[in-house]
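One chain shown below:
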Amino acid sequence: MGNAVVVGAGVSGLLAAEVLARRFERVTVVERDEFAEGAAAFRGGVPQSRHVHVLWSRGLAALDALLPGVVTDLEGAGAVVIEAPEQMRWLSPAQWFTGVPGTHFLSASREVLESTLRRRIAERSTITFLARHEMTGLVAGQGDRAVRGVRLRERGRDGREITVDAGLVVVATGRSSRAADWLQRLGYPTPATDRFDAHLGYSSRYYRRPAAEGRWKAMYVQGNPDVPRGGVIVPIEGGRWLVTLIGQGEHQPPVEEKDWLAFASSLRSDELSEALTDAEPLSEAVAFRATANEWTHFERAKRWPRGFLVIGDALCRFNPVYGHGMTVAALQAQVLAEQIAVREPVEIAARAREMQKAVAKCPQAAWAIATGEDSRYPGTDGPKPGTFGRMQQDYMARVVAAANTDPVVSEAFFAVLSLNRRPETLLAPRIALRATRRRT
């Protein structure tokens, strides 16, 4: 069939739709939320959107390759590209980054990012958005060996159900357990799921950005296992700061005004709370707690139906504190583009299992970073690090400490953090020598 269906109009789903429109006659993007006409507005299906979002340099490059000129569009909408740590006051778990090279990232609200992408992608006449519809199941074909469409229910009083036929169904949103349930109904076994939950919590609010720009554009005060509290200030559109407080376990950041400011004052540095002293708050604080790392290994399935693919958060989600989700989404879209290039829709559907394995390689580095750091906390739910894992953690602590002041280590560290290089590159002799001679 010449129709593809993408479930979810978040970053991952939008980029997948753009790529699929190059090979399919029609692409239908299904979204349970309503879209605000011509505006960047909060969607209930993206509760994390009211908290800090960053798109690391690797993701920014991938995004601009997929949609040439979109970074310029984002900056025109008020997004800010920040050099870190040069333009970012950054206290690592060891000490402040000082006078070292790093990387850059884009700071914008999730609402502006999605609305800008949606506007660009909607320019394709072959892409249709079907809002206020929720996927309820898969439609089987060829004796349950293939997926030939989706069942949807319209959100609202009547709850009308419809079926949309498709040669390829891509699920890009929702918990991975839902995609696994839909597969199970077709007779496919449930894949294994890895899960690490450090019980990290966010609490965020907006401030008016000071008219006079100071010596930094953004600030990040990280916590560590001894003081598991942190905070971030980033500039976003509308002349605003988005400020997110972070806490682990029993140190969950509050939302009440008095307690919120007190929490900001309790970080490892007073600089963040001092920056807010004379700043004008523009909103109350809101909380977010769903920060577990979760990966359902669909790529390991021994049987897989034609015409079905799972990507984005539906495949693997990360603790958002490391800022990797949107970058991984862009990388998966690039891999999808490579997989379907010069192939006809029928062949693309037949290669679904191969594509699933290919997109599943994209989260590997981000997963290693997130779970390796999260497992430092004694209260983290998930497999505990063994002797080798603890050695890795000790080594990484030394790398971070060295990166604070050593330009060679800093350049390598930020290349890994931004997903431009693999984590194992930090084991190179020139990095190891500099890191291991430093005291943490």
In short: The chain has 14 helices and 20 strands. The mean pLDDT is 93. Residues 369 and 417 are 8 Å apart (CA to CA).
